[in-house]
Amino acid sequence: MTDTTAFNERHYTVDEIAEMWRLSRDSIRRMFLSEDGVLKICRSGNRFKRTCVTMRIPESVLNRVYRRRCAV
Predict the structure, then answer these.
(1) Which H or E element spans position 21?
(2) Considering only CA atoms, which of 67, 70, 61 is closest in space to residue 14?
(3) Closest Cα partner for 34 from 10, 63, 55, 12?
(4) How much is the pLDDT for 3?
(5) C-alpha dihedral over 11, 59, 22, 50, to 10 degrees?
(6) Contact (Cβ atoms closer than 8 angstroms) between residue 18 and residue 27
């Protein structure tokens, strides 16, 4: 897959996938946090605020994880 393909495909939020799969947001975050191809937008924390990571999951990554989880 080329970079332009990943750019043009649909990207899902953690909330959207949690609703589709009927899982908690935390479960989805853990499942996709270390996956290749996931867009992670980080805001560094300090001693008063925690670090925030916003994730956008491309449809191809969503399908890959789904196939892998169903194969088990």
Answers:
(1) helix 14-21
(2) 61
(3) 55
(4) 56
(5) -40
(6) yes
Helices vs. strands in the chain: H and E counts, helices first: 4, 3
pLDDT at 31 over 80: yes
Average pLDDT of the residues in 21-33: 96
Structure tokens at 47: 């001693």
Tokens of 23: 């899982």
55 phi/psi in degrees, rounded to 5: -115, 140
State the pairing for strand pair 39-43/11-13.
unpaired
Average pLDDT (46-65) is: 90
Confidence check: pLDDT of 61 > 90: yes
Whole-structure pTM value = 0.79
